[in-house]
Amino acid sequence: MNKRLWRRGLSAFWWLTLFFLYLPLAVVVLFSFNSANSSASLAGFSLRWYQRLLGNEQILSAFANSMVLAVVSSLVALGIGCLIGYGMYRHRHRKLGWLIVLIYLPIVLPDIVFGISEMAFFVQIHEATGWLRPGLGTMIIAHVTFQIPFVALIVYSRFVGLDPTLFEAAKDLYATPFKRVQHFMLPTIKPALISAFFLSFTLSIDDFVISFFTAGPESATLPIYIWGAIKKGVSPEINAIASLMIGAVALAALLSLIFNRRRPA
Amino acid sequence: MSNRMSAELAEHSDTSPTDQEVATRKASSIELHSLHKRFGADAVALDGVDLSIHAGEFFTLLGPSGCGKTTLLRILAGLEAPDQGTLMVGDKELTEVPPHRRSVNTVFQSYALFPHLSVRDNLAFGLKMRGLPAAERDARVDEIAAFIKLGDLVERRVDQLSGGQRQRIALARALVCEPDVLLLDEPLSALDAGLRSQLQVELQRLQKRLGMTFVFVTHDQDEAMVMSDRIAVLDSGNIQQVGAPSEVYERPANAFVARFMGHDNLFPILARDGLRVQSDLGWLELHKHAGQGDAGDCLLVRPETLEIGDVVPEGYNRLAGVVQERLYRGSRIEYVLEVNGQSLMVVASNLGQQVHQAGDAVTISVCPEDLVTVAA
Q: What would be the CATH architecture of the domain defined by B263-374?
């Protein structure tokens, strides 16, 4: 009897946690379909706020910036992170303690510290050389920097999960170093690479703090636009953008999860 | 096109190949000269190995773990480079040649089948890397699949295969490349006993049919004896003995080889007088071919050459002992006897003769020709 009560209590706790996590999101999504121009009362169902988004130049340009930033930075991070992940695997028997810590550090470093240091760094380079004017370019560099550790770790753990004799079998079966990459390594880690891409994409779309510090006047992304817009109050339009972002990020995270799980036996 | 394999298929369907046909096939000999390899400062894996492996031979590297047999195999494959020494396969020197440019293929202990590829693509991998066109790859894969009787396994996924099936696929993947030498790194060790002895026979027959040079690594002396034409016994980076299974078993070069081949009845020689030696068993008569072992060496008494019974034939050695233990094994009966305070193992074929009980006093006879001396 007591045990059952305890179990019910635990179950209630679980649902309460989910409730507090997802209720605010649900409210935003709900109000994005509200036909009334109010954040307090629901009237009827309407898609007018979504239609309004399509007519708003600023939002469309912020959306385009977000997409370009996310796709380009994810691809670059994928290339570099993949090489680092393989390097970590190849030299896993050497004592790499502090090097590994350096790879992990950006993951736990507060975004604001990261953002401010990137900004200061870019500004100094810009003043000294005229290169790296704040804008999409600097944002891409900043995003790549924080995406690399995630890619490297995903690729590394994929390699660690493989039977090491597979590398020798490929050599033994006449594969040259180049063909080993083409016909063995890349196909074998493909699910990990796709997963890493979607994770990087999600991280980039989500990011506000680092983008904010490294952006230029014309390179506002959706989170930066939203931040500017809510200073004037939460409009139903913001609810619509937020709902779209929730959908996009949820989709990318789901794809990342699916591809990370899909590993050939 | 693989004439060898086609010829094999034809032969397989009616009769087995004649010796002459086998002899005309391509097979490569291996010459190892003064191979040294150490890992780190003090781990010596190979300590100057010289070895000749004949073309078309089933050759086994036998020894306990850490004896250097795997290192030797990896040097043959090119996966490890020797610190010193040379390796010749046929008339080519391969010491410095990377693995992907050696006509040598390996069956790995873990099988190492590529998880991202189907069975068919696994089998075709080596041919593809060598640049064979797709049609020819398919034909060769079908051929090897028929040869090794893989049946419908070819169309399966790797994760749908059992251990025994993986082993056969790994073997087929190496054989389809028709290497000069096939290396096998304990390929049967992960299988259960029944399947294992079945595959031992299959593998040995396959090697004879192909006439290919096989180099097999194992720590199991029974497996080595069943399958090999010749065996090299290794210990701590040195070759202790090379010879046919019967030589290595019946006339081990030293006490290590004798113990590793499963001999328990090894007694230090205390003194020698012509053809008579003294050990803890007492004085025993030897044949003149028994070896020159003297005090400090060992006397080897093979358990299956001992006979229990009151009638001792003319010229045989006679020992008296007491049965300590009896192990009934069906086809044979093993006795542990006490003779002069020493344990002596006797193996008797179960022919329906009298079965002795623990505590029985018995007479044991052994022919002088069955005793050998072994260097310590």
A: Beta Barrel (2.40)
Backbone φ and ψ of A166, nearest 5°? -60, -35
In a domain, A26, yes or no: no
The tokens describing B285, both together, are 């008569």
Helix (H, G, I), strand (E, B) or coil at B284: strand
pTM over 0.90: no
Pick from A165, A190, A264: CB nearest B112: A165
**At B8, is the pLDDT very low, low, confident or very high (cuts 50, 70, 90)?**
very low
Residue A126 sits at the chain B interface (C-beta within 8 Å):
no
Tokens encoding B4: 């060898």
> Looking at residue A262, what is its pLDDT?
65
Judge whether residue B337 has pLDDT over 90. yes
Measured CA to CA, the distance from residue A203 to residue A191 in angstroms comes to 18
ipTM for the assembly? 0.85
DSSP codes of every residue in A46-77: --HHHHHHHH-HHHHHHHHHHHHHHHHHHHHH
Which residues of chain B are within 8 Å of residue A169 when distances are taken between CB atoms? 106, 108, 112-114
Question: Is A45 part of a structural domain of the chain?
Answer: no
| Segment holding B95, helix H or strand E | none
Q: In terms of CATH, what superfamily is B3-255?
A: P-loop containing nucleotide triphosphate hydrolases (3.40.50.300)
